Fold PTS system ascorbate-specific IIA component.
Amino acid sequence: MLGWVITCHDDRAQALLDRLEKKFGPLPQCRAVSFWRGLSTNMLSRMMCDALHETDSGEGVIFLTDSAGDAPYRVAALMSHKHSHCEVISGISYALIEKMLPLRETLSSEAFREMIVAEGFPEASSLWHQQQKNPPFVLLHDLYAN
């Protein structure tokens, strides 16, 4: 099963998780991480790292964030590069994650990423999709060195 780390500004992450658990009961491998005004990105990183390890069963973890480019998204993006089968999704809503909930048991992290972005378009996107629009910077020297 894919782990979920819901991470948003203020109390939105916990509110989303509470609403899901009220409807579906306790959700294994699912944690909320709130980014409060004044919280350092270092502390946010530590909280998200703990949540990543608590939710990862080896099949992958999906970071569900409220907006691309903000601190929760950036921290998740840095973590995803160090852990296999980690995806970062932005632009989530309650309706979207409720719809995707049953699929976390059957899909790979990559298939889940594709499906949630397709279902949530145009609001939802992923780090992977953003990287396809903006490929990594390559020095010309590196291109001609081969």
